[in-house]
C-alpha cells in the first residue's frame, strides 16, 4: 500500500538537500522533479513514462500535489514504490518532506525516482530538493502567455516539456511551436525542450531516451542493468 506522509514545513533545509542528494547517489538513483499546474498532464506523463521504461528501469514516485492524491497516483505501476506527501498549502515541497518520503521507499530497488508536484507561485523558482534534474510541464492548451506567467519556474528548469501536443488544432502553443520554443529560449537557453503527447505517444521516445541516457551515467544503475 502506498504510504501517506504529513509534515509541516520547516525552516532552512539546505543541509537536508545535501543529505537527500547523498542518499540518492549512494543508492545509484537518478531523481527528477516534475512540476506543473493543474491539468498540465503530469500524471499522464508519468504513467506513459513508467510504461515505456519498465521493467528494465525500477521506478518510484513521490507525489506532492497539495490536497490531491488520486487513484491514478496510487495505481501507478511502481511495485508499491509510491509515497504521497500530504500538504495543506499550495507551495512546493521542501527537502525535509522529501527526506521523510525517502524513508518510506525501498531505495535498494530503485533506479529512477520522480518527485511530482504542482507549480510554484509565479515569483518562485523550482526548489533544490536533492534531485538531479528539474522538469516543468507547460500544457499546449495553456496559451503562450503561460511562459511569462511562470517565468521563474522556466528559468530554473533543466527540462521544459510542452505537453498535450496532440491538441495541435486547438491550442495556441501547439499551433505555433516555434513561438513556444522562442519564448522558452528567451528565458532559459540551456534547458532541454520536448514536445510530446502522453496520450498519443508522439514525442515520447525523445523524453524516454533523455531519461535513459541520464540513468546510464549512474555507475550503480549500469551495474544493476548489466551485472
Distance between the termini: 30 Å
The major beta sheet can be summarized as: 8 strands, parallel
Contiguous helical run count:
10
User: What strand order characterises the main sheet?
Assistant: 1-4-3-5-2-6-7-8
The Rg value, from CA coordinates, equals 17 Å
Overall strand count? 8
The helix/strand class is alpha/beta
Write down the overall mean pLDDT: 81
Q: Which descriptor suits the 3D outline?
A: globular
Q: What order do the SSEs take from the amino end to the carboxyl end, as H and E?
A: EHEHEHEHEEHHEHHEHH
Secondary-structure map:
Elements: E1 3-6, H1 14-26, E2 30-36, H2 42-53, E3 59-63, H3 71-74, E4 82-86, H4 95-102, E5 112-118, E6 133-139, H5 146-149, H6 151-156, E7 159-163, H7 172-175, H8 177-187, E8 192-195, H9 204-215, H10 219-226
Parallel strand pairs: 1-4, 2-5, 2-6, 3-4, 3-5, 6-7, 7-8
List keywords for this structure.
single chain, 227 residues, alpha/beta, 8-stranded parallel sheet, 36% helix
Condensed summary:
With 227 residues, the chain is of the alpha/beta class.
Explain the overall architecture.
The chain has 227 residues and is an alpha/beta fold. Helices cover 36% and strands 19% of the residues. It is built from ten helices and eight strands. The protein has helices at 14-26, 42-53, 71-74, 95-102, 146-149, 151-156, 172-175, 177-187, 204-215, 219-226, and strands spanning 3-6, 30-36, 59-63, 82-86, 112-118, 133-139, 159-163, 192-195. An eight-stranded parallel beta sheet has the order 1-4-3-5-2-6-7-8, with helices on both faces. Helix 1 (14-26) runs parallel beside helix 4 (95-102) and helix 2 crosses helix 9 (204-215). The radius of gyration is 17 Å and the shape is globular. The two termini are 30 Å apart. The relative contact order is 0.19. Mean pLDDT is 81; it is low at 4-13 and 221-227.
